[in-house]
Amino acid sequence: MERLIFHIDVNSAFLSWESVKRLSEGGDDLRLIPAIVGGDPQKRTGIVLAKSIPAKKYGVMTGEPVSMALRKCPGLVIAKPDFRLYERCSKAFKAICRKYAPAMESASIDEVFLDMTGTGRIYPDPIKTAYEIKDRIRDELGFTVNVGIGRSKLCAKMASDFEKPDKVHTLF
Which of the residues are catalytic? Predict the structure, then answer.
């Protein structure tokens, strides 16, 4: 029996999770404006932990100092990290993923591998199943993921990185 592995990765996790929280409070969707998660907004110190696609267009990079990001994009919105929020969102994301596979490996706070080997009777179409998982996470939790499908963890991970956000890709 050939192995079938899904790699599921939250798109810009910290920023997405902050956006969902802010939207629920009537705030802005940080994914749609030049924004980052990182550092202290008042002190303008620390590093960029996550960035929006609009911030990326200004050359803002994950891991760089917040002060440098602000020089590149003076109107940048800075969200202070909320690690308790991220833990809650991660648990909710992983709870959905866990329902689909007999074996799940947590690779980080925002990514998992699902071993779908032998699930063909329950899920005869892997691509359809990947879309179901992706769409369920978006609809129930409010953020997007990429799903990569392959015969190994490496191929599945590479497939999930092909194009973002909110995509399903295969690499066999």
Answer: 111
Helix axes 83-98, 13-24, angle to 10 degrees: 100
**Distance of alpha carbon 119 from alpha carbon 143, whole angstroms:** 26
Q: Which domains does the chain have, with CATH numbers?
A: 5-11+83-171 (3.30.70.270), 16-79 (3.40.1170.60)
Q: Nearest to residue 107, comparing CAs of 162, 76, 148, 138?
A: 148
**Torsion angle, CA of 80/165/127/100, rounded to 10 degrees?**
10
pLDDT tens for the chain, 172 residues long, are 799 999 999 999 999 999 999 999 999 999 999 999 998 767 767 999 999 999 999 999 999 999 999 999 999 999 999 999 999 999 999 999 999 998 999 999 999 999 999 999 999 999 999 999 999 999 999 999 999 999 999 999 999 999 989 999 999 8
Q: How far apart are the first and last CA of the chain?
A: 15
Cα separation, 168 vs 125, in Å, equals 13
